[in-house]
Design brief:
Blueprint: E1 3-6, H1 12-23, E2 31-34, H2 41-45, E3 54-59, E4 68-73, H3 79-91, E5 95-100, H4 107-123, H5 129-140, H6 146-153, H7 155-169, H8 179-186, E6 199-200, E7 208-209, E8 231-234, H9 238-249, E9 254-257, H10 261-280, H11 286-294, E10 296-299, E11 310-313, H12 319-332, E12 338-341, H13 348-353, E13 361-366, E14 375-380, H14 386-398, E15 402-407, H15 414-430
Parallel strand pairs: 1-2, 2-3, 4-5, 8-9, 8-11, 9-10, 11-12, 12-13, 14-15
Antiparallel strand pairs: 3-4, 6-7, 13-14
Amino acid sequence: CDMVIEAVPEDLDLKRSIFTQLDDIVAQDAILATSSSAHSITDVAMSTKQPQRVLGMHFFAPVPVLKLVEVISTVVTDPAIADQVTELAEQLGKQPVRVGDRAGFIANALILGYVNHAVGMYESKYATREDIDAAMMMGCGYPMGPLALADLVGVDTIFAVLETMYEQSGERLHAPAPIFKQMISAGWLGRKSGRGFYSYEKPGSSKVVADELTPAKGAAADAGLRDIGTVGVIGNGTMAMGIVEVFVKAGYPTTFVARSQEKAEASLGMLRKSLDRALSKGKMTQEKYDATLALATPSASYDDLKDVDIVVEAIAEDLAVKIDTFQRLDKVCKPGCILASTTSSLPVVKIAAATSRPADVIGMHFFNPAAIMRLVEIVSTVITAKDVRDTVDALCAKIGKRAVHCGDRSGFIVNALLFPYLNDAVSMLEE
């Protein structure tokens, strides 16, 4: 053979043993490559007499489908060999990327920290597995949620790579969540064993089946929920008007408040422009267009919100400004009106505590553009009333949104997982 690629389990001693044997079998100019995603390529190379011909060629499963191949050089790898393997990957129709010998390389170094963070979030019961995965799929456009991804890759494989990465980096983000060891001991290794974070029809199957953690199907009874007939929105920017559009399209009379009547009227043009597009594409009849637009009422006065059933605040991410807004709403809105904030980073409980009705305050985090993105993070504080939480959940279903529930922690689900991942990528570039 001109080249041998090793793809055995992530066991360093096993890999070293194989490369030692290969060293005495193959020709002097043969290339030896390991597909390891966890162990040091240098450690594998040094088990041979010619470490300069050893490098990493890390494919991704399923190999026939995924195009990425990481070509990993050690400090002793012959650059000409790395060039040859890069060219080979291209001939195979793959997209090679060149990287140095660091645990996790590029893809796993970024993605497994993110998966580990999500697993820790699940382990702490911050959010359900279904909500964590739905949040990242709908909020970030990922094809699969982090817990489903862990099951696909294998719980034991992810644990092994994280351990190696943590040994090298000392980064807390790479310290495996304790639940990994418990799952491995229980034999819950993911799809390959039939049980991981989810349960599967049989070992090796991709079909998820219900288990003791699966949420009950069917909409919750309306009994005990607050009546939502009219809506208020604070703000007239892109996010605020997107939220207005969502509600009026769902048939809710909606009053939105801007700093001046002039600005409010001007912002109505944003809504009209969006509805014009729907009308021109045949997605809306003229009758529906007229009825929908008539449901939106521009205003410059909080007093116009005195009779609405829920107010959604969508203004700047400034805690002092939001607190002032909610204090004003507290004085104007009727008893039982739900006060919701679209904040993505500020503590909802601090906003709630500034009012005389903290149990009626909740986070309702839409994603931009609100009229298109289906996800809404419902953020409950320690003092949010259950009927408020349930009412907002039911309201999301009525306006065509997928609600996910989480506690009042900075970043909630999506941003809490996304931004450390982005920060890790920036650090990698910086290095």
